[in-house]
């Protein structure tokens, strides 16, 4: 699983991790039943604390995307809903736009201009 974090992003790290995993599931990189790498391995690869990754995984479990099985690790419970994936991406776009000086209304106008 290739995840990247933006250290300039104002969102908490656990939200970034959850978003990246949510996108990987939504994009089909992980299908229902697939096991995720252990939290410690993900944390080491990202250079963050394992508790941060665990917090993200628990958030996704609470959403119903992941399931925890004792002795078997964490696996994908279901495919990410299209709407949830779009909302996540839109939040990220809004945050990026705000960092670059655009307002929500500016984005709406840009969307209206698209074919």
From TrEMBL:
One Gene Ontology term of the molecular function aspect: DNA-binding transcription factor activity
Domain HTH gntR-type: 11-79
Entry keywords, A to Z: DNA-binding, Transcription, Transcription regulation
SMART domains membership: HTH_GNTR (SM00345)
InterPro entries tied to this protein: Tscrpt_reg_HTH_GntR (IPR000524), WH-like_DNA-bd_sf (IPR036388), WH_DNA-bd_sf (IPR036390)
Pfam families assigned: GntR (PF00392)
Domain of life per record: Bacteria
PANTHER family membership: GNTR-FAMILY TRANSCRIPTIONAL REGULATOR, HTH-TYPE TRANSCRIPTIONAL REPRESSOR YTRA
Protein name as it appears in the record: GntR family transcriptional regulator
